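pasting for ref
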Amino acid sequence: MSGSRGLPGLTGVEHVGFTVPDLDEATRFFVEVIGCELVYSLGPFRSDGDWMAEHLAVHPRAVMRELRFFRCANGPNFEIFEFDAPGQRTAQPRNSDVGGHHLAFYVTDLDAAVAHLRHHGVRVLGEPTASSGPSSGQRWAYFLTPWGMQLELVSFPDGKAYEEGAPVRLWQPQQDSAG
């Protein structure tokens, strides 16, 4: 398809998925501390053939114990998995590692959200930080889940500096009122 750019019919990000070591612990954290809603779950999934390797690029004998889908207010859904697999790595990647990642939650009051996390015993990394340059107007703070996954809070109620005169703006949860 020479000359075409991008995926035909692309309308947005539907979900983000990640693997956790304990599905029940992760569910409690995302529901009770973050405020997400568990929507549904599926599983277990396993195959005696090569289905897991062919479709998910995991060990053919990997077992996906269960997956759970969540909605966290406004934005992409996410799903969490719990796997048992031969040779499974259990260390969380750092942001600097290939495959490093984080999930960011937009909040209207960063200071109140950080206080909430600390009240629940969540490890917040440093203090809320003000961005500079094109991201001026934004404040953020990283924090860790009980199993060590990096998450972030972001807030920019008056927008970011780059937006003035920008032909394209990043999607922002507070702009979308779809429910």
